[in-house]
Amino acid sequence: MKYCSLCGHPLRVAVPPGDNRPRHVCGHCGEVHYQNPKVVVGAIARWEDRVLLCRRAIEPRLGWWTLPAGFMENGESTMEAAMRETWEEAGALIEVEDLHALIDVPPIQQVHLFYRARLLRLDIAPGEESLETRLFRLDDIPWDELAFETVRLALRHEVDAPGGGILVTSLGSKGSSDQRQRRTSPTA
Amino acid sequence: MKYCSLCGHPLRVAVPPGDNRPRHVCGHCGEVHYQNPKVVVGAIARWEDRVLLCRRAIEPRLGWWTLPAGFMENGESTMEAAMRETWEEAGALIEVEDLHALIDVPPIQQVHLFYRARLLRLDIAPGEESLETRLFRLDDIPWDELAFETVRLALRHEVDAPGGGILVTSLGSKGSSDQRQRRTSPTA
Ligand SMILES: [Zn+2]
Ligand SMILES: [Zn+2]
């Protein structure tokens, strides 16, 4: 970030009044340009004992299996994001049920949310970002071919606590293992 | 957003190849500038039957009561954000326990997360953004003087389901009440 997106003038790095950390500040119009983590939302879409996975048609991790997931857009809720991503990547209609996992990934400034969902129809078809969509039995999940660690954790949690509880954890938080907190709230 | 933050040239609005919605694209360097929702994180910090509230020293809602909360920063986890905000706004040390609420606010491009927490020490003191910090009994929460609707919902959920369950809901999603989904996962 080098130029002000409002006025086009060069930015400098400074701690604004009342703030406690350096920000990108415009020397011309005074705007402070904050940078914040992004939210990635995905779905664990179930059909009986199977879960919907997509094989990625894009980098990174082209050819690897993933849950339908992607960046949340302005103007939508997290549940709507889960439905939209599942539609875009797998052509699949879902009913969102419960929050399944919240996984922080501080090194890449992301928060990953996964919702538990029910597949409404069996017809699925890969979208532009997928090579293939397939329903895997929980016993047959391709653990060694999963694209991302957050996907692995979300699926692991589904296998360990089918239909219940929320996984809350943080990945690679400043390399300190005692900052990695994992809590599961089992449902009644 | 009018100018490219990378090269300073004017932006235009166009649908990038492989995308399905208009973005701000740089006509000079080609960079696509995405805009995404921001995450606000707060804490319901308990001391026995009391909960920590702060009276706001800043606009909006100057003088109204709120839970310690604020924008998540790059490089931290959501739990760390809850601890930091509680420290900055109320001088309070907490131990984060469970995820308490996820409240989408699509009209303002925000996702609000609240963690249930335990106050570690009784000494609290208003930070720069607070006029006052106080521990309120759940029976004495100043419902008519709360700063924000998400704070009201989070506190309401604490009163309704003390110590258990996650509230997942969406506020004002495109004005349609049937898009407002509320789910509570009671803990065992
Ligand atoms: Zn400027
Ligand atoms: Zn540019």
TrEMBL record, chains A, B:
Keywords: Hydrolase, Magnesium. Gene3D superfamilies: 2.20.70.10, Nucleoside Triphosphate Pyrophosphohydrolase. Its cofactor is Mg(2+). Signal peptide: none annotated. The keyword Oxidoreductase does not apply. Residues 167-188 are annotated as: Disordered. Belongs to the Nudix hydrolase family. This is NUDIX domain-containing protein. It comes from Tepidiphilus baoligensis.
